[in-house]
Write a structure and sequence with these properties.
By secondary structure, the protein is mainly beta. It has five helices and 18 strands. The protein folds into two domains: 6-136, Thrombin, subunit H (Beta Barrel), CATH 2.40.10; 150-286, tm1086 (SG structure) domain (tm1086 (SG structure) fold, 3-layer Sandwich). It has helices spanning 74-83, 120-125, 156-161, 207-212, 282-286; strands spanning 12-18, 29-30, 36-37, 45-46, 66-70, 89-92, 101-108, 113-117, 131-136, 150-151, 165-167, 172-177, 179-182, 200-201, 223-230, 236-249, 260-267, 272-276. The radius of gyration is 18 Å and the shape is globular.
Length: 299
């Protein structure tokens, strides 16, 4: 197990409510080929899409798996997004689903939603406006033996569940990923001065790159490596840097957009070495989404 400063981290409650989907006065999204398309998008309760499902195949634009949570107050929503970390516990505190628990799976920039996975029986009881309390834990996380690797948006719970391989001599972590992605095809989300909220998108408009990196098989919850990307202080191109993130929303129609990735780990000096593992998905590590183990009913 990695040695961290976990015992010194602050665990703090943040709260939001199940957000409504957005439509806007202009429903069309225009593709890079100039085709206007009307599709489901962000927000709400998405019943049939969960962590583990393919993130590319849907007739959708930026759709978010399971449940989207947000605050109407801007400052409070900033805290919700900042303090929530992937793998944190979420608890429903109002409505018919009160008492149900779930797990934070992502943060979606622009709309500034926090995404949470719940089981099917809980989803059926949830309604838009229900309050969700998240036990924010992970902000400030650091690795004692790997000072050149920075965790961001990651709960200690998720870090401990990942089968990372340590090389303490070279100060390198070997991290499991389902895909490697060149920084050259990353789009929306570039220019941010930090990576503690939101995500940035893998563009899928170049068919050769999609085929070369097998990107049509991306799933919600997949952990991916972005090569030559440094997320230490914002998202930049840096030769030799490696950043690790999790796929949080679906593919998109609009130019510059695609499946979104929320940062988990970054190294400006290339101290992260990714290795391919088809099971590198937070659903498997956290027992959520399509990988959730169903409890047997007592007779």
């Amino acid at each position: 197990m990695l040695e961290t400063n976990g015992k010194n981290l602050v665990e703090m409650s943040v709260i939001g409510e199940v957000s409504s989907p957005l439509g806007g006065s202009q429903p069309y999204s225009i593709s890079p080929e100039g085709k206007p398309t009307v599709l489901p998008g962000v927000g709400g309760i998405t019943y049939n899409i969960k962590v583990g499902d393919n993130a590319v195949q849907w007739e959708a634009d930026h759709v978010e798996p399971c449940v989207s949570v947000k605050n109407k107050d801007r400052e409070e929503n900033g805290a919700l997004n900042l303090l929530s970390c992937i793998g944190n516990t979420a608890k429903i505190i109002s409505g018919d689903a009160k008492g149900g628990t779930g797990v934070v799976t992502g943060k979606h920039g622009g709309i500034e939603n926090v995404l949470v996975d719940f089981d099917d029986s809980t989803l059926e009881k949830l309604v838009i406006g229900d309050k969700i309390l998240i036990r924010g834990f992970g902000l400030g996380l650091s690795l004692a033996d790997y000072p050149q690797i920075k965790p961001i948006n990651m709960s200690p719970n998720l870090l401990n569940a990942m089968p990372v391989r340590q090389d303490k001599t070279k100060k390198i972590l070997h991290v499991p990923v389902t895909h490697t992605v060149p920084a050259a095809i990353m789009g929306s989300g570039l220019g941010s001065q930090h990576c503690y909220r939101g995500d940035y998108d893998i563009q899928l408009f170049d068919k050769e790159q999609v085929k070369k990196h097998n990107l049509s098989t991306l799933r919600f919850g997949d952990i991916v490596a972005i090569i030559d990307a440094d997320h230490t202080y914002g998202r930049i191109y840096r030769t030799g840097a490696v950043s690790i993130g999790v796929v949080v929303h679906s593919a998109c129609i609009t130019a510059g957009h695609g499946p979104g990735v929320t940062t988990l780990l970054t190294s400006a000096d290339g101290k992260i070495v990714p290795y391919i593992d088809r099971n590198a998905n937070i659903g498997i590590y956290l027992n959520i989404g399509r990988f959730r183990k169903k409890t047997k009913r007592k007779r």
